[in-house]
Every structure is written in structure tokens, then in C-alpha cells.
Amino acid sequence: MAIVGIDLGTTNSAIGCYVEGKPKLLPNPLGNVLTPSVVGVDDDGTLIVGEAARELQVIAPHRCASIFKRHMGTDWSTELNGLRFDAANLSAAVLRSLLCDATHHLGEVVDRAVISVPAYFNERQRRATIAAGELAGIKVERILNEPTAASIAYGLHDDGEEKVIAVLDLGGGTYDVSIVAIFGGVVEVQASSGECFLGGEDFTSAIVSRLLEREGLIYEHAEIERPLLVSRMRRLCETVKLELSRETETQTRMPSVSGDAQWSDRAHRISRDEFERWTEPLLDRTEPPLRRALGDAKITVDDVDMVVLVGGATRMPSFRDRVTRRFGKSPQCSIDPDQVVALGATIQAGLLDRDEALDDLVVTDVSPFTLGVETSKDFGTEVRSGYFTPIIFRNQPIPASRSKAFATMHANQTTITLKVFQGESRLVEGNVLLGELDVEGIPLGPRGQQIECRFTYDLNGVLEVEATIVETQEKKTLVISRNARPLSESELHEALEAMRELKTDPRDKAQNRLLMKRAERVIEEMPMGARNELESLLDGFEEAMSARDDAVTARFQTAIQELLDQWEMESRRDR
Ligand code: AMP
């Protein structure tokens, strides 16, 4: 039985295992250590994950889901080919695919995992991540903050010198900043801050939006009315964005706005300057979390010895320039920013497994939010409710357990409802409600009966609230009643059954499935006259696969691959 580390990313996910004294990321059947976090249901009802699902998404966006990490812990759900999925189900599908790859490479069953989440993930989002692990059939031993994971990877990798590092993580969908101290094998997170709705995908959307504008369309409307057009454009604009990280100018063709499937000859020229102007407001949003994290750690940029970049979107030159200007030094990226979190999670898994190579490494983390309860204030003439009383403060080292005593406001008051909130606002209306706990059975008597409220925040960043009526010593524990609560036995059983009923793509078919999906997408991009050759190759390919003739299948595979590569190369040259 093995334990693995998993980066369940917004755009890509990765899995690793600590072997022979080193963290090692395990490749998927296509040989890649990054698997796109995209889930689709094929027309035969098969659940597909990764590259093939990303191809399918271009031609059948209604049957695929991506960027669902943003919806973890919310009521959001989506229907794919008649089946309903919430964000935890979709994450479970990605996890199952990663676990299958790990089992294949390790030759043993994986039953436990460390999963990383953005530091700014709230209680519900963390619980939803744990639920996704349960749905995938594993025990989530630890939820680890992504910047902490990155620091662990750098901490292990580094020269052992004492230093303060700033970890800036701009992934596909989220942005996190952490201030971390590293000394003598200790990785100590001192402050974390972030934005749940800022990531590389927003930079892609900015290009889509501007190009649609040039055609007289509005992004938000087009997304609903022309989903196919928008999904094709997203794919193109993603390439544009990546090219603009290397080149100062690029071009792209646009699918015709008058017909979803056809291509217009219209080429759009986009310069890096233009892209940077369009996305400057997005870059500006990276500043407040940085200021908050520095302030909480009680340091300035001058105290930061090293800036570490995590997440694919930190490759944008505009992001790097801004970081260099802000810190007065160039950022570090000696570990691949796409792999550093998974490597850190894998090292943490090794720590939990007590791998002796990691004996000297100690990791401490902090609570990213303030947690507390709603209280009322007695102003003599009136009692006003809606005030937020903190119990565990933001950036306090975890695990943490703190209690505070509250008193009844009226004589003979026998119940109190403790409303638990997270956030930084003085009034609860500006914070997030996490749950409510009814405390009944307070003995009759004058006002001022004491209730002790204890908050325990564990290493996974999961909160437990316990209330004790001081006089009777009767205790009550909070069960968070939102949808991201841990699943009950029967719910888990039901959800597991439903997942089991879904057909999944066999590992050995992954290559062929990807080739078919890529070919289906390219066929739709080709002019009618050019399709015949590819279509007949595909017919032969399908026939050989059904006849289980491996040699002929391989020949068709090569021929199709060559044709697709050639078409894609030519269509880039045309631009
Ligand atoms: P992650 O969630 O860390 O995998 O980050 C994925 C995000 O990084 C996506 O939005 C990608 O488009 C973006 N990304 C990856 N490589 C680059 C690059 N070279 N230039 C700009 N953005 C990139």
C-alpha cells in the first residue's frame, strides 16, 4: 500500500511518490507528468480525463468540464451527456485517473494521499477536496497549501541557508502569495494571502474578449449563445498567450462568427504590448494579496531574500517584470513552476510515510483566515447583533486550538446559536458563514450564563467547533451543514456506486482515444475537400482496432499522426 502526493490543479494535475530518497512524478499513459484537469463524457458514455477530454472539449464543450476547481465547495454542478456532476465528482474523476497511473507505475495499490490546495481555499473547499479523495477511493491524509508545498520542494532542494522567501503562485485559476522562512531544515509559513478568482485563464479570456469585440460580439453573451465559437477561440487564444510569452507579436485565425464550424480567413495580429495593456488590470490585482501577506509577516520587500515562482502563468514576461520591479531582484524558477507543487506534496507524503531521507525536515503552516463567531453588543438602550468576534486569528501557526467564553444576554435564556464565520471584516455580513451550532439546555438563571467555545483548526486547515455549557459541562460539536460537509456513510456509498457505474477509459486505450479526439477536432477545422484522406485513415484505424490487429492499428496510428502534425504545421504557417 502506497502513499502519494497530488497537485489537483485548476488546469493540470500531477501525482508523485517518494522513492529511493527522492520525490518522483509519475507519468500518464501518454508519458506526460501533467494531466489536464479536464473531464468529458464521450458519445458512448465513457468518462474520459486529460488530453483526450481537452480535445473533445473543443468540438463538444457541452460534454466536457474544466476549471471546476473554482467551484469546489459550492452548489455548482454541470450536466455532461445527461449525467450530473459537481466539482467534487469531477475532481474525483481526475484523481481516479492519476491514481490509476500511480498504481500502474508503482505496482502496488495506492490507498492514501497528500493533496495540495490553494492556501486561500476556505473550509468548504478543503472539505470538498477531502470528499473528492473519498470518492476516488483513497484516504486524504493531509491537505497541504500549495505555496507550502512549493516551499518544501525549494527547502529540500536548497543550500540549507537561512532565508525568507516569497512564494508567488499564479496558476490557471487562483493566485496565492506566501511568506516562508527556511532555516535548518525547517520550513515555516509565516503568512499567506490570495485571490480565488485570478489566474492564467483570465488572461486567456481577456484575449478572447478583445477579439470577439473586434467582431462586434460581447464575451459574456457569446459564452451562452455561441459556446462552440468561444471554446474554439479559447483554444486559439491560449496558444496566442503562450506564444506571446516567447515572441513580441503573433497572429491567429478566427473561427467565423457567422457559422460555428467554419473558419474565416481573417487573421488577427496581436502584439505583446497590446496583450499587456489588455491584461494590466489583472496584474494590478496581484498587488493587494502581496501587500497583505508582507504586512501580516511584518516585513517589507527588502527583507525577502528569494522570490519563488509557482504556476504556469508566472511564465508571462509581464508578470516576471512586475515581480522584478517590485522586489528589486529577479525571481527564482530553478524547479519547473508546473511541477514544484506536486513535488512538494510528494515530499510531504514521504514525510508522513516516515521516509528516513526526510528525517531532518520540519514543516509548519498557518491559518490563512480569521475564524470566529457572531456576537451582539449591548449599547444600554439597545442590543445590536452582527458583530464578528475572532477566535483564531489569520496567520496563526497551525494546528491551533483556542477558546473564548460567551455569556447569555437575557435572564432564563436556555439556548444560544453560535454562528461561525471566516473572514477579516468587523461585521459578519462581510464574512463567510461556515455553519451554525445550536446550544440548548442552558440552565435557567440570570443573564451571563457562560458558554465556552473552542475552535480547533487542524493541519489540514479543517475546523472543528465545540461549545461547552460551563455549569453543566454539556458539550456540542459543530457539523458544518453546507453541501461540502464530509459525506455520510450512506451518501458516500451511493456516490461511489454512481461513480463505479460510469465506464472509464482503459489505460492502454488512452493513446488511441487521444488520437481519435484530435482527429475529430482537426476534421472540423479542415475545408471539405481536404477531409477525405483523414476520414478514410480514421475508418481503417477504427476497423483495425475492432479487429484487435495491433500491427495494422499501429500503422494507421502513425499515418494519422503524421497527417495531423502536417495539417497543424501548415495551418500555423498560413497565418
Ligand atoms: P497551472 O495551474 O499551474 O498548471 O497553470 C496553468 C496556467 O498557466 C494556464 O492558464 C496556462 O495557460 C498558463 N501558462 C502555462 N505556460 C504559460 C506560458 N508559457 N505563458 C503564459 N501562460 C502560461
Question: What does this protein structure show overall?
Answer:
The chain has 575 residues and is an alpha+beta fold. It folds into four domains: 4-198 and 285-366, Nucleotidyltransferase, domain 5; 200-283, Actin, Chain A, domain 4 (Alpha-Beta Complex), CATH 3.90.640; 371-472, Substrate Binding Domain Of DNAk, Chain A, domain 1, CATH 2.60.34; 507-574. The chain contains 16 helices and 28 strands. The strands form seven sheets. Strands 1, 2, 3, 4, 10 and 11 form a six-stranded mixed sheet that branches. α14 packs parallel to α16. The longest helix has 25 residues, at 550-574. It is globular. The N and C termini lie far apart (52 Å). The structure holds adenosine monophosphate. Residues 9-12, 171-172, 200-201, 238, 241-242, 245, 311-313, 315-316, 338 line the site of adenosine monophosphate. Adenosine monophosphate (AMP) binds at residues 9-12, 171-172, 200-201, 238, 241-242, 245, 311-313, 315-316, 338.
CATH architecture of the largest domain: 2-Layer Sandwich
Rg, Cα atoms, Å? 26 Å
What oligomeric state best describes the polypeptide chains here? single chain
Largest sheet: number of strands, sense, barrel closure: 6 strands, mixed
CATH topology of the largest domain: Nucleotidyltransferase, domain 5
Give the count of helical stretches. Answer: 16
